[in-house]
Amino acid sequence: MKVEPNVVITEFIVNMDNIFHLYENQNVNIAEEVQEQTASLARYGVPFYVLTNSSEGGDEDNLHIVNMKLFEHYPNLTLYFYRFLMAYDFLQAHPEIEKAVLTDAKDVVMLNYPFDEIEDGILYIGDEWKRLGDVDIVANNASPQYMKEFSAKNALRTLLNIGVIGGTREVLIEYLGIMVKLITDEQLKVHQGDEHAGLGPFEMEIGNYVAYRYFADRLVHGRKVTTVFKGFQEQSSAWFKHK
What we know:
Blueprint lengths: L5 E7 L17 H4 L1 H8 L5 E5 L5 E3 L2 E5 L11 H15 L5 E5 L4 E3 L12 E9 L4 H4 L5 H9 L4 E11 H23 L12 H11 L4 E3 L18 E3 L1
Parallel strand pairs: 1-2, 1-5, 2-4, 7-9
Antiparallel strand pairs: 3-4, 5-8, 6-10, 7-8
């Protein structure tokens, strides 16, 4: 399968608990679930790749549903982390991709074409009005001590929302690659019997940690990337509406 140079990628993982949003992900029609984002991308001629562990697959217009097997040897890893592993593997497998945006499947739509504005070396991420230290799924997430200390020291930074992540293929592989390394390190400790190992159930903390720790001087977030989170803005100069 040859993939276009500029694409949007999402993941739709089935038959696994979605412990935060609690929506149904069994016996679902994936094309119907992502139809709003599919339509918004079609207006700009942007291919949409939905990575899934479902047996559902196929191509229709700009929508491409791609079956990918999950790595099943990571105990208690939630779907929020599996999405990063899937996106990383897909980008690695397709060097023909030049630029991409990784999005949440069901609550993101494209408002403006982003790819002409994405610059080499820059990581683009959505954000929220909240601060990093104000968020329960960061403050109370069962993450490693080094990550907790970083979050505490950076508690006043803007909360990045990793429902929208954009950049060149190289930048995205770098960002996701660091995440994959951290996930793998913690899962190895779990396998070795360390009762305190793991990254907790939620990915918000690791997403902010990697962005601020490794990309602080080449990070763009805010209204260029996404609308006000949960602002329901239909008209904006932002690339994407996120709720």
